[in-house]
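Hey, I was hoping to borrow your eyes for a little while. I've been staring at a protein lately and its backbone has me curious. You're getting the sequence in one-letter code plus the fold written as tokens. Would you mind checking whether the tokens look sensible for this chain? Here's the protein in full, and shout if anything looks odd to you:
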Amino acid sequence: MKFFTTALVFLTFFSIAYAGERQPIATFDWAVTETLSMLDIGSLGVTQLETYNEWADNGLIADDAIELGFGSMPNLELISHLNPSLVIGGLTRLNEKLSHIAPTENISLFPITGDPWQAVQDFTLALAERLGHQEDARRLILESEQQLARLSHKIPTDQAPLLIIQFRDDRHVWIYGEDSLFQGILDQLDLTNAWNKPTNHVGVSTVSIDELPAIEGRLVVLKSPHYTSSIGDRLNRGGLWQALLRLRGGNTIYLPVNYWTLGGLPSAMRFAETLVETLEDT
């Protein structure tokens, strides 16, 4: 109940994203789709929408958007039939085919270079400028920063560095590093990321779980819908994971996930609020 009351005011302006009219835009990037929804712009079609809901299940993208197929192999016939006014994504190799259907823009958050929080702002503003919603974007960024300032004061002092992981399967995890969406939030909350090793283009490293005991930092396990439905039970039944937890001294946080870990500003803020609420309670 405490999380509901502390976060309700801020999340309200993200929850009304579908009050506006749906625009004839096809999106190939979930961070793009989330951000457009935040700006009160509903996409007509989205690639791999079912997969997004399996991993995030957060209501940030409307269920009545049309499924356009895989991002790497979209249903070009369907897209052509929908006759979008704009296609937004980061798949340059598809540009030639898509450009025969509608104008195509490659606006993407990743890879992040430089300050991650600034990258989220720049990405949000670039989308907003393309569609004439600059003032809305500036207002939402300002409100986000004000909320982050409030959240930072709620965090108990003397926090250990955090090692943020998400299970890929029951033997491997993704660890979120310095070029990730989450790094920008940690910076804004004055928290330290325990992982400082090289990452891939979305700020993630893949690590075997038997390497985790040797990595310093408080373990933060992201409990996504995918984790809950297909991985959590196997881990709880398996002796290896339980033994690894004991080696880490039991100081592990399980963080609910109602955001996309590679998303835009809406997911970043959902992560921030959930993380702070969990740190308050542990």
